[in-house]
Write a structure and sequence with these properties.
alpha/beta; 6 helices; PTS_EIIA_type-2_dom; protein kinase activator activity
Length: about 150
């Protein structure tokens, strides 16, 4: 799946959230602002529920927080580049500065796994990661992740 299908430019931002909870709240607010049928609280609870099962920090400064929602029928994403890395209990114990959040319909388990895999593959590309970390402009950030 092409990332530009699930990621709106308005759900891409550079920020300094300060903590894991704050970055999850930021993701929730960003998505809720673009999808009026969703509440920020509903999104936050879905992301937080998944984090309680284990951190979605996959290492190398990357996290892919994700959750399932009954109220959507297509995947929705957000991209956050933290200007100051955030402690995220990642697998390698390193702070996180790139977060690609993903919300998927509750009944689409296979699509969820396929999309997560595509995001992880994109973020494992060293050149892409280097570009993302160099950028401080949301529009450029969106262009790099969706190219």
């Amino acid at each position: 799946m092409e990332l530009k299908i699930i990621l709106k430019p308005e759900c891409t931002t550079c920020a300094t959230p300060g903590s894991k909870k704050k970055v999850l709240e930021l993701i929730s607010d960003l998505i809720a602002a673009q999808y009026p049928d969703l509440s920020g609280q509903e999104i936050f609870e879905s992301l937080l529920s998944r984090e309680k099962m284990g951190s979605t920090g996959i290492g190398n400064g990357i996290a892919i927080p994700h959750g399932r929602l009954d109220s959507i029928d297509t995947p929705i994403a957000a991209l956050i580049k933290c200007e100051q890395p955030v402690q995220f209990e990642a697998i390698d114990k390193q702070p996180v500065d790139i977060l690609f959040a993903l919300l998927v319909p509750s009944d689409q388990c296979q699509q969820h796994l396929t999309t997560l895999s595509a995001v992880a593959e994109k973020l494992s590309d060293k050149q892409t990661l280097k570009q993302l970390r160099r950028i401080h402009d949301e529009q450029e950030l969106y262009q790099v992740i969706t190219q």
